[in-house]
Structure formats: structure tokens, C-alpha cells
Amino acid sequence: MAGPLLAYGPGRRLARGRVVTKTREAVAGLVVTLGRPQTALVFVLFWSALTIAVFWPVGLLAHSLEDAVDWPVLLWVTERRNPTFEEFNWFYTALGDRDPLKKVVVAAAVVFAVLWRRRFWLPLVAILISFPLEQYVQAILAGMVNRGHPPTGLGSYPSGGIARIVMTFGAIALFVALTWELKRRWHVVLGTVVFVLAFYEGYSRMYTQKHWITDVISGLIFGPALFLGYAVAVCILAGRFPRRTPASAGIAAGVSESDGDKQPEVVPA
To the nearest 10°, the Cα dihedral for 122, 127, 133, 139? Predict the structure, then answer.
């Protein structure tokens, strides 16, 4: 329900809001001045720094709730775990580990590089960079908060397994949408699938006691927040954001194709 609700409710209103409009204008100005590749890089670095600045105090708050929230939930789960269900959760939670997702990232990058033909470099670079982007931003936050982990696991703040799933499968869903002309409902389906995968990853991390519950909740917010900036940067690089308008077409016309302002070619399905 979360995907359709966000897509057709608050998400649609937010996309038409003043903040998004001002962001679009600012990005358009940077594209004209710097070019698309440079603007995409600047944006993703800015967004990463902003994400760290926002989730640092959130991590300190999570740490302060350890005795009041984390320990009671950990003990509650301990008393109610079922061996068969636990085995399934141990199997599923491995999906968020680094090793399997490295293979998924590489395979996806190669597949979309082939599909994008002459612009093969774009998905190759963008999809491959999603993995270290999440890893290093999450590692910086974990070091800044340094809250420790449950005695039953080694999970840190925020849950990297959740964030990796959001970034990896979110990047794949993003390039599916960029490669083929899909109707809006399919965009909602893709977003919902990624959300469900991430949500259950969070549940499995909590059930297997690898993370405090506040790590899981933070990861479910941190992952999509970081992905949002990554997705905008990819769309800038691909020429999908901001879209040219009649008013800005004359200004953009003065930028050479070497500056990266050329619109992407249509990629066949």
C-alpha cells in the first residue's frame, strides 16, 4: 500500500511543491553553467553530505532510546522466535549482505550497458557507483554515531542491509524506467516491489537479532533518502531532469553537446 499511497498522494503533491520547483530551477542553472556530468556529481555529493547531517542527530536519538525501546523489543523477539520461521529469516536476510548484492550490481550494470548501446557508459558508471555510495555514507554515519550493536549481532546504525537493498534494486528499477517507456502504474509497481523487499529485510534483521529496532527503522528512512538524491543525480546525467521547457530552451541552446546537455537517445525496449 505504501508505494501507491506515496505515488498518488503526498508524493504527487510534493513533486509539484515549491521546494521541488526551486530545486529544478537551481539544477537547470547549474546544467547550463557546468554541464550535466559535473552537475550530477555536485548534486550527489551535496545530497550525501545533507543525508549525513540529517541522520547524525537521528542516530544520537536512536542511541538514547536503547534502554527504553531497543532492549525491550530484543527480549520480546527472543521469547517468541520460531525455529522454522527463524531459518527462513536467516535465509532472506542474507539478501542484504554485501557479497550477493555486489554480484547483482555488476550483472545489472552489464545488462543495462548493453541495452543503452552507444551510451553504455551511463548505466555502467551509475549502477556500479550505487554500491560504494551507500557503503561509505553509511560507514561515515556509523562512525559518527558509534552506538554499538546488539549482543546477538554486529549490525550498526543505520541498517546497511536495508539501505543496500534500496540502493541496488532501486537503481535497477530506475534504469528499467529510464530504458523503457512505462505507464505510471508500472513505476508504482517497481517502487512498491523495492519497498517490500527493503521492509522485509528490516523485519528479518530484527527477527534474527542482527540489529536494534531503531537501526531498522532508521535504515528504512535512510535508504530511500539517500536513493532519492542518487536517482535525481542519475536523471540529471541522463538528461531527464530538469526537462527542457520553451523558456529555457534558448538558454540551454548555448551549451555545447560536449558539456553534457544533449538529451539521451531513445533506447529500444
Answer: -170
